[in-house]
Specification:
Length: about 210
């Protein structure tokens, strides 16, 4: 957890100097933000690539972030594919659909897992429980601020797979499983990742 917090602080400092966004004109007839948002995303993706290159060089790790763009001309709607370098979800490929609002980075992106997976912080339907994906004034009282960026989102999602959090769950049954019977939870995770059934729910195979 400490390393994640340190990375978050560093990322916030770097993004504070990133390109800003212009205001939306009155009445919503024109939107000057979108080009600036795309510039900010370019900065974010370069930040992710730099971080990953440094980590892979230092630790000899495989690539753990991949991006897919259904429409290459539209960087505001894409898929992020994670490959955890360790932990209980090692060997899996996890795909998230990310939609970036015109108000980014003032508002966080919308993130949803496209696969049915067994995880205390991710529902089988794909909803994700991650504090930084909500603003402080939202119903979930999140911690998103405008100095955060896509690198923070990618690292936050990866952190969920390296250290699942049973104390802030969406899937309550999986959270109890992890808290009460960690070894049984590990077995259930492997079963689900192989495309088997856990507690009456059939999961998708996500192994490489």
């Amino acid at each position: 957890m400490l390393k994640f917090i340190e990375l978050r602080t560093k990322s916030e400092r770097e993004n504070a100097a990133a390109p800003g966004v212009t205001a939306v004109t009155a009445g919503g007839k024109t939107n000057n933000r979108v080009p600036a948002v795309k510039l900010r995303l370019q900065h974010d993706f370069k930040d992710i690539a730099k971080y990953e290159d440094e980590e892979r060089t230092a630790k000899g790790l495989p690539q753990f972030f991949q991006f897919e763009y259904p429409d290459p001309s539209d960087p505001m709607h894409f898929y992020l594919i994670l490959e955890p370098p360790g932990g209980m979800y090692l060997g899996g490929l996890f795909k998230f659909k990310i939609d970036v609002p015109d108000e980014y980075p003032d508002l966080p992106p919308t993130v949803k897992c496209t696969q049915k997976i067994y995880h205390p912080n991710i529902l089988p339907e794909g909803n994700v429980c991650l504090n930084i994906l909500d603003k402080p004034d939202s119903a979930r009282h999140g911690s998103w601020t405008s100095v955060m960026g896509m690198k923070m989102v990618a690292l936050g999602l990866m952190h969920l797979f390296l250290e699942p959090n049973p104390d802030d769950p969406l899937n309550a049954e999986a959270a109890v499983d992890l808290r009460v019977n960690p070894e049984g939870f590990k077995r259930d995770v492997r079963t689900a990742m192989q495309g088997g059934s856990v507690k009456g729910i059939k999961y998708e195979r996500v192994l490489r």
